[in-house]
């Protein structure tokens, strides 16, 4: 397998795709991972991509404000691809579906997986990796459907499509189609080993409560009190910061909520929840589903932790490379909220990824939710997290 990246900041989609495709033989490409900012029309990009790469598996989504590769951080308008050249024994196949209010997500996801396997003549087989991109809203149900379909935990890496102002200008695409409300998924059967990592860059505080009322992504009560008041009180008691409703969103990336996901050698690890806004009823609208009875914790994280957590995730992946095999390439998914908080420090993140990957090709969009595989094998959806997969040159023991 051979990985490479290309970036274009040309405004016209046709010119940008032409720049990405310059001197490339499309028949040599096994797949393309493709990311873009909201300034580009998904429909136009899809049309140009499928005309330029008619025989190539494509999966991607819109990214928040920019994209990273081994060449640097690029602010939008920007689009970028990671191409993979591989032998015929390495198979990439995609599934695509649009969601509507009246359709069952589970059935749509199952049909997409079935179609992808059928098209690749891999029915009954289990992929080595799933790359998942969906528009925000149904990530937990999608992942449950994937686990149910295969009846085993397949490594998943993914990110929810993003825009710049949380106003629905996000989209996903594959070579099969594009949508502002849907799912793009790739099932990979690589002929090289890979390893994944998934982690948060935040630590728990002393403030813990139980959800006593919730509905989907609305957190209504904590310990029998309005969620808004409890959350703001926790932040005030922990940091002496008084948050007004007007500037609520300015602080939530510093103080997300966390749910205990497990522990490794006695050290707990968490799935993070990113509050989005306060409703008129005093509820907290979130980027992830919650349920009554769950215990939640106020989390906190410094800028240095957000910068350095990529080190932790990639080291987690590399720790599975028992034979020290050479790195070939990587996909990383980085939370848009954390990226926004870091500002210019995102360049430090890019430099750290480059060093850890020995300057091998990588691509990294910024998303509104992250999907990955914890160390215990559980696949999960969270917020303010980083998820990575690294491909290696030769075989090592196990994932």
From TrEMBL:
Annotated ranges, domain FIST C-domain: 227-374
Domain FIST: 26-226
Superkingdom assignment: Bacteria
UniProt-listed InterPro entries: FIST_C, FIST_domain_N
SMART domains listed in its UniProt record: FIST (SM00897), FIST_C (SM01204)
Protein name, as recorded: FIST N domain protein
Organism: Vibrio aerogenes CECT 7868
């Amino acid at each position: 397998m051979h990985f490479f990246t290309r970036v274009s900041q040309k405004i016209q989609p046709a010119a940008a795709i032409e720049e990405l495709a310059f001197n490339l033989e499309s028949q040599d490409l096994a797949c393309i991972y493709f990311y873009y900012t909201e300034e580009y029309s998904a429909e136009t990009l899809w049309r140009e991509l499928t005309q330029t790469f008619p025989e190539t598996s494509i999966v991607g989504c819109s990214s928040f404000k920019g994209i990273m590769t081994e060449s640097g951080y690029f602010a939008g308008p920007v689009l970028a691809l990671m191409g993979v050249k591989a032998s015929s024994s390495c198979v990439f196949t995609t599934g695509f579906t649009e969601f509507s209010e009246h359709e069952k997500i589970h059935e749509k996801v199952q049909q997409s997986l079935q179609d992808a396997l059928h098209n690749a003549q891999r029915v009954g087989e289990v992929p080595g990796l799933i790359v998942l991109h969906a528009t925000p809203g149904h990530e937990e149900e999608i992942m449950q459907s994937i686990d149910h379909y295969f009846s085993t935990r397949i490594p998943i890496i993914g990110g929810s499509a993003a825009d710049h102002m949380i106003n629905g200008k996000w989209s996903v695409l594959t070579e099969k189609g594009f949508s502002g409300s849907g799912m793009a998924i790739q099932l990979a059967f690589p002929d090289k080993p890979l390893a994944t990592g998934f982690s948060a860059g935040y630590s728990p505080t002393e403030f813990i409560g139980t959800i006593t009322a919730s509905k989907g992504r609305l957190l209504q009560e904590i310990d029998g009190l309005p969620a808004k008041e409890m959350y703001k009180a926790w932040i005030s008691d922990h940091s002496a910061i008084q948050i007004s409703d007007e500037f609520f969103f300015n602080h939530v990336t510093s103080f997300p909520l966390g749910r205990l996901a497990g522990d490794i050698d006695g050290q707990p690890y968490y799935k993070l929840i990113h509050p989005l806004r306060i409703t008129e009823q005093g509820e907290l609208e979130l980027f992830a589903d919650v349920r009554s009875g769950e215990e939640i914790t106020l989390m906190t994280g410094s800028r240095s932790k957000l910068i350095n957590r990529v080190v932790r995730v990639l080291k987690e992946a590399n720790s599975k490379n028992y034979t020290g095999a050479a790195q070939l390439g990587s996909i990383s998914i980085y939370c848009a909220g954390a990226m926004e908080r870091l500002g210019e420090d995102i360049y430090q993140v890019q430099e750290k990824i480059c060093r850890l990957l020995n300057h091998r090709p990588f691509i990294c969009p910024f998303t509104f939710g992250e999907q990955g595989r914890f160390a215990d094998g559980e696949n999960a959806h969270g917020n303010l997290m980083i998820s990575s997969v690294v491909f290696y040159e030769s075989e090592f023991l196990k994932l």
